[in-house]
Design brief:
Blueprint (H helix, E strand, L loop, with lengths): L5 H8 L4 E2 L1 E7 L2 E7 L2 E5 L4 E7 L3 H9 L1 E6 L5 H6 L13 E3 L5 E3 L4 E13 L2 E13 L5 E4 L2 E4 L2
Antiparallel strand pairs: 1-11, 2-3, 2-6, 4-5, 5-10, 6-9, 7-8, 9-10, 11-12
Bound molecules: flavin mononucleotide (FMN).
């Protein structure tokens, strides 16, 4: 199989286990959010974070307009939330408990860690944007992470 075949590439990248976050923001017509695994710390010294957002994501387009993002690192028991925030065309916040971060972003109740940042740069790469944000807030809660690996949700043993 050709290494650049899309299915093969997906299979290979699926071997990279990640945590799962929900990126959030409050647009004029209410809170928005989407499940994301391409998130990380870019630079501890300058407190920069990054994530990749699909240009097809309506939630991302609205969050981008706000200019401030919330990052909810999901806990092991939050797979249902990960699924809700990965679906399109639904009222994702219906029945979800959340509170406001210092700069207004939605923080989902029960998350493992919370971050909030100001968007500093958005670079387009075809069907995805690479977003760099500068942290304004970060905190943790006790617990274990939700993990995504080879197309499925896992918890640490
Ligand atoms: C485990 C997992 C990881 C995902 N990671 C990303 C990601 O890194 N970037 C992204 O744009 N979408 C990612 N998605 C897909 C978005 O969650 C999905 O396209 C989005 O929620 C669609 O909703 P919207 O139409 O409201 O934007 C991921 C989905 C799942 C299930």
């Amino acid at each position: 199989m050709n290494s650049f075949d899309t299915a093969h590439r997906k299979e290979v990248f699926g071997h990279y286990a990640t945590g799962v976050v929900v990126i959030t923001g409050v647009s004029p017509d209410g809170p928005k959010g989407f499940t994301c695994q391409t998130f990380g710390s870019l630079s501890v010294d300058s407190a920069l974070i990054f994530f990749a957002a699909s240009t097809a994501s309506s939630s991302w387009q609205r969050i981008r307009e706000v200019g401030v993002v919330g990052v909810n690192i999901l806990k092991s028991d939050q797979e249902p939330l990960a699924r809700v925030f990965a679906a399109s065309g639904t009222d994702k916040f219906s029945g979800v408990s959340w509170f406001r971060a210092p700069n207004g972003s939605p923080f989902l109740e029960g998350s493992l860690a919370y971050l909030e940042g100001t968007i500093r740069e958005v670079t387009n790469h075809g069907d995805h944007d690479i977003v760099v944000a500068e942290l304004d807030f970060a905190s943790t809660e006790p617990g274990d992470p939700l993990v995504y690996y080879r197309g499925g949700y896992r918890v640490l043993d």
